[in-house]
Amino acid sequence: MAYVNHYWINERGEEASLISNKMKLAGGGSAQNWLTYDYAYCGFSGYADGFRIEISTDCGTTWDSIYGASGADLQTTGYVNSPWYPTCGSWETDSLDLTSFGYNGDTIMVGFVAINDYGNRFFMDNVNINGQNIIIGLDDEITEFNTSIYPNPTKGIFNIRTDANTMKVEVYSTLGRLVANEFIQGGLQQIDLSKQPKGVYFLKLMHKGTIEQRKLVVQ
């Protein structure tokens, strides 16, 4: 988890950045590259801290902004005029379709920018990019399967796209109850959780002895 303590920082207009490693996104006409993250912010009455997400395709030399919000548009709960920590109910999940912004097969870096207005603390957690996953060097061999889950958050119906020829998917509630069990062939499967309660679910993705776990939010 990362956070910026705007409550104690009176540097209005100043920015602080958290920058990712380089990542190789999936490419091609069927590519789906999604950035998802959890965040929490309460604000302080009369002040409006901001948050921006930027993408660089040239190792950080230049940056393009793909998202920005501040003040009430950023809040996940009501104003708190004292030092604040989020509770379970004050977190929200957001997702951005990087492919729709024109990033397809690119090697990118992602910048998360906090903009100070002397308000209150901003928190961010569970950052994930579904593409070809984080790479340390461009020549590293990628051995694990690549999977995109979208849309996330979802109203209940979502898609799983993978480059694995077969994959077993199990979906669990936060209480550990198995609510869906699917077998994917052909790289694409739609799963319907619309009859399940709203909340957070965990997906267990299994392929040839490799297991990945992802989080899904049903709104």
Architecture of the largest domain in CATH? Sandwich
Q: How many domains would you count in the coordinates?
A: 2
| Average pLDDT rating | 87
Quickly give the structural class: mainly beta
| Dominant shape | globular
Terminus-to-terminus distance:
23 Å
Order of helices and strands: EEEEEEEEEEEEEEEE
Number of distinct beta strands: 16
Main sheet attributes: strand count, strand direction, barrel closure: 5 strands, antiparallel
What Rg do the Cα atoms give? 19 Å
Fourth CATH level, the homologous superfamily of the largest domain: Galactose-binding domain-like
Helix percentage range: under 10%
Strand percent estimate: over 45%
**CATH fold call of the largest domain:** Jelly Rolls
CATH class of the largest domain: Mainly Beta
Instruction: Show unreliable segments.
Output: 132-143
Number of alpha- plus pi-helical segments: 0
How would you describe the overall organization of this protein?
This protein has 219 residues and is an all-beta fold. The chain has two domains: 1-142, Jelly Rolls; 146-219, Sandwich (Immunoglobulin-like), CATH 2.60.40. 0% of the residues lie in helices and 48% in strands. The chain has no helices and 16 strands. Strands 2, 3, 5, 6 and 8 form a five-stranded antiparallel beta sheet that branches. The protein has a four-stranded antiparallel beta sheet with strand order 1-9-4-7, with no helix packed on it. Strand 15 (199-207) and strand 16 form a beta hairpin. It is globular, with a radius of gyration of 19 Å. The model is unreliable at 132-143 (pLDDT under 50).
